[in-house]
Amino acid sequence: MQSSEVRHDISDNEDHPGTSGIWTFVFVDMVVFLIFFVVYISERLRLPEIFATSQRLLDPLTGLASALFLLTSSWCMVEAVHATRALDGKKATQLLTLSLTFGGLFIANKLIEYSDKFAHGLSPVSNGFFTFYFLITGLHFIHVIGGMCFMSHCRMRLSTELGCRSFRKKIENVGLFWHFVDVLWLFIFPMLYLAGAKG
Amino acid sequence: MMGKSPQARTIWLVLMALSLVSTFLAEGSGHARFAMVAIFVIAAAKGDLVIMHYMEAGRAEPHWKLMYRGWLGVVTALLIGGHVLAG
Question: pLDDT category, A165, cuts 50, 70, 90?
Fold first, then answer.
């Protein structure tokens, strides 16, 4: 098998979004987060009062702001993929910049939230809930940083690689990863910030 | 070719609106259990919109659509079931 065939799975269909590799990678990552959710729920069942009391220390509006930033960033990413397919490099660059900006706002919001928690003496070892809070949001945060690095890479290569099939697949892959990060937050937000806090 | 931009914009608006509704339900509803079930159902609906329209799972190999939607179903059932059992 040629190395180029290995780099881009020969089963990858030109009409399919992304490569089969990214769909597999993202799904495995989703299963990993599912395992975290299972353990979180099992601990929540064991310690309902501690979890509910601790959840009240989180600000739902901060979680909502994070959700709105990521959803907006995700939309810009979709539009950037559209523009890349249409070979509109200028528009794709602008949209990637916007997507990165909203990703940056998510990161800033999260860092402010973390610093506020530490300032109030809350850390990953405070109790079971905050262990999960820092672990799950921290892992998600790392995914956001990773996604933004991939996006920055695409933005830098856009002017020279626009029109290449491999670049189109690359930006579709980055888009798929970024939307997956968005989907994760769609569940992390209600799970940690909304559900059960008032119970 | 994938969905047109106006569709992506409409979906973004729906996703933003549903996020606001979830927060309102959690903060303002007097029925905690109903609100809890509703916010996870809304999260699942939002996830499905992202998977089908932004990730374009409908245009990928057919098994991915099944597996990603299956993940959504399992996570939603887990979170609702876990919170209902917790009382």
Answer: confident
Q: Tell me, what's the ipTM? A: 0.92
CB contact under 8 A, A196 and B36: yes
Highest mean pLDDT among A43-47, A106-110, A162-166: A106-110
Give contacts of A64 with chain B, Cβ < 8 Å. 19-20, 23
Q: Where does residue B28 rank: exposed (0-12), middle (13-18), buried (19+ CB within 10 A)? A: exposed
Query: Would the CB atoms of B26 and A194 count as touching at under 8 Å?
Result: yes
Q: What are phi and psi of A150, to 5 degrees?
A: -60, -40
Please give the Cα distance from B59 to A14 (Å, whole number). 11
Separation between Cα atoms, residue A77 and residue B9, nearest integer Å: 12
| Angle at A108 (CA atoms; ends A106, A114), nearest 5 degrees | 100
